[in-house]
Amino acid sequence: MDLKCFVIKGIEAENLFKNPLFIQAWDVLFDSCPWATVFQSKAFVLNWYQCFESFSKIIVTDWDGQRMTGLLTLTQKNKVLTAAGLDLAEYQAWLSSQNFSDKFLKKALFAINEAFPNQTLYLKYLTAKVPLNLFVNKGFFTARTFLRQYVHPLMETNVEVLESELKKKNKKEKINRLKRLGDLEFFEVKGNDHFRALIDEMSLQSDFRKGAFYNKTYFHDEPERKTFLLKLFKLGLLHVSGLSVDGKLIASNAGIMGPDVVHLQGINSHSPFYSKYSPGILQFLMLGIALKNSGFRYFDLTPGGADGYKSALATETSLAYEFWFTSPWKTKKKRWLELVKNWIKPRLQDKSFLGEDLSNLNVAGMRLKLKLKFALKRLKSPRKEEYVHFLEGESIIVPLQDKLKNTTSLESLSEAYILRENHIPDLFLFDENASLFPRMDVFADCMIRLEYGQTMFTLTKGKDLRAICWFIPLTAKASKTETKEITRPPIFVASYYKDLSSDELLWLFMKLENDFLDDSVENLNLEIGKNQKTLLDWFKS
Predict the structure, then answer these.
(1) In whole angstroms, what is the distance from residue 478 CA to residue 266 CA?
(2) How sure is the predictor about 104, in pLDDT bands with cuts at 50, 70 and 90?
(3) Which of 7, 283, 424, 429 has a beta carbon 3.0–4.6 Å from 115's, enabling a disulfide?
C-alpha cells in the first residue's frame, strides 16, 4: 500500500475533520500507533483547534478517502510549523504504525518541504518510543534534521515508597505545621463545577510564579487555556487535585492524562503564602498515592528541568527529544551553536553576570535582554515619576511613626483608589509597556517577599497599579541574610510606586497604619530606596 501524502489547510482541513470516515480512521491509527500519546488523540487536537481558533489548521496525511497510514496535525506560530496544541501538547509526533512509520515520515517531510519551502518544522518533545531510524544514516533527511536529547523523569506510583517519603522527618514536620494552621486536606476534583470554581486560583498561582521565574503568564495572556482545560476535564482527559488548609488552596495540579499515566502538563501551582511548607512537593507525593489507587502506573514529570525537584521525585528516567526539520544550512548552524553551548555551559556553573546566574543560559539570556531593554528605556525617560526598591537594594531606614503622628490630617485620596491586602490579582495590572521596569522583576520581588512572610498592600486606580507596599513585622524576614532572632523594629516599605505625590504617599502610609495595623505595633520604621526621590524629599521636608 503506497499512498500519496498531502498537506491540507484551512477550510479543507475543517471539512476533513467533519468526515466521519476520516475520524474513524484517525481512531484506528491512534490505537495501532505504539508511540501515540493523548496529545495526538482526536479529542485533544480537535478541541485545541476549536479553542484556539486564531491558529491555522494544517493536516499532513496520506488519507485517500478510505485508508490512512500516517497523520501529523500541525499549526503555525512565528513562521514555524509545529504540532497542534503548541506547548500544551507535551509530546508531539506523527501517528503511524510501526510498519509504515519511515515510509510515511519520508512522504510527509517531502510534502511539508514542498508546501512550506524554507520553513522549519519543530516538535517538542518526541518520546523515546518514536522511531527515528530515518535520521541515523547520512542522507537527505539527516542533513536537514537536528535532535536535542533530554532526560525524561518518571515517578512510578508506588504507594509504599511514597508513604515512606511522606514520613521522612522534614516532610512530616511540614505536614504537622500545616495541620496546626487548620484542616489539611488532599482532594481529587470529580465535578465540573468544582473544577470551574478552582481554576481561576490555580491559574493565578501558576502565572504569578512562572511570571517571576520565566516572564511567562500563560493563562493571563491566553484565556482560551482555561476553556480548553475545562473541556478536557469534561471529556475525562484531565486529572485535577489539590491541597488545602481550611478550604484555602495551597497547592494544585491539573494534569492531562492517558490510559496509565498523568502528565505534568496543564496547571501545577502552589501559594506563595505557604511556600515555606513546600506544599507543591507534598501535593505531588500525595497525588502519586491517589493515582495508584485510581489505577495509574506513572506520574510523568516531563522532560526539562530534571535536575531540580523532578530528580527528587523521579523513580526512573527515559529519554525525549526536541526535533527540527529545516534547511541544511540552518541545521549546520544549529549543530555548531549546540557544540558551543555545550562547551560553555559547564564553564559557567556558579558564575554570574550583572547579578544573573549563568547556570541556565536560556533564563539568563532572557533576563539580561530585559535588563538592557529597560535600562535603555530609563535613559530615554529619566523624568518619569516611577520608582522601585527591590530586596537587597541600597536603602536607608528612618523612623516613621513620629513623622505620621506629627502630620496634620490630609485630604484622603480619590475614591477611585482601592487599597487591598495580599491581593495577587492586582499585580497583573502592572503595565510593562508603559513602565520603566520589567514585570518579571516586580513579580520576583513580590514572590520572595511573600515567601519571607511580609504582608503586601496594593494601591490601584481603575485598571492601573499605582503602588505596592509592604509591612514587615518581627515575624517576617526583611532580607535574605536576616536571621530568626530579629531585633529591628517593624518596617513599612514601598517596593513600587508611580505618579504619587508626597502627600498621596503620606496618606497611603497613614491609611495603612490606621486601618491595617494592630495598635500594639510600635516604633514603626520606613525603608526608603536610594532612588525613591519622592519619599526621600518628603522625609527631609
Answers:
(1) 34
(2) very high
(3) 7
CATH class of 6-151: alpha beta
Instruction: Specify whether the CB–CB gap between 207 and 220 falls below 8 A.
Output: yes
For residue 181, give every residue at least 6 positions away whose Cβ sits within 8 Å of its Cβ, in sequence order, or none.
245, 246
What are 42-85's pLDDT values in tens digits? Answer: 999 999 999 999 999 999 999 999 899 999 999 999 999 999 99
Three-state SS letters, 136-195: CCCCCCHHHEEEEEEEEEEEECCHHHHHHHHCCHHHHHHHHHHHHHCCEEEEECCCHHHH
Whole-angstrom Cα distance, residue 313 to residue 119? 39
Q: Over range 362-389, report the average pLDDT.
A: 83
The grid coordinates of residue 16 equal: 476533513
Please tell me which residue, 379 or 476, carries the higher pLDDT value.
476
* Secondary structure (3-state) at 472: strand
Q: What is the mean pLDDT of the chain?
A: 91
Return the higher-pLDDT residue of 472 and 394.
Answer: 472
- Grid coordinates representing 309? 525537584
Cβ–Cβ < 8 Å for 343, 152:
no
Q: Which residues of 97-119 are buried (b: 16+ CB within 10 A; e: fewer)?
A: eeebbebbbebbbebbbeebeeb
Query: Which CATH topology does 158-296 take?
Result: Aminopeptidase (3.40.630)
Q: CA 207, 213, 216 angle in degrees (round to 5)? A: 45
Residues contacting 329, CB < 8 A, separation 6+: none
Q: Which of 100, 50, 107 is nearest to 75 (CA)?
A: 50
The x, y and z cell numbers of residue 283, run together, are 501535593
Among 123-132, 425-434, 524-533, the range scoring the smallest mean pLDDT is: 524-533
* Alpha carbons 155 and 167: distance in angstroms, whole number: 18
* Cα–Cα–Cα angle for 482, 484, 488, rounded to 5 degrees: 60
Q: Which amino acid would we find at residue 528?
A: I
Strands (E), 354-410: 356-357, 386-388, 395-399
Domain 386-540 listed as CATH 3.40.630: yes
Using CA atoms in the order 470, 476, 480, 483, what is the torsion angle rounded to 10 degrees? 150
pLDDT in tens, 223-273: 999 999 999 999 999 999 999 999 999 999 999 999 999 999 999 999 999
The model's pTM is: 0.92
- Domain locations along the chain: 6-151, 158-296, 349-379, 386-540
List C-alpha distances in Å: 249 to 194, 217, 225, 267, 363. 13, 19, 20, 14, 29
For the segment 304-311, the average pLDDT, to the nearest whole number, is: 78
Listed residue (512, 319, 345, 355) closest to 419, CA to CA: 512
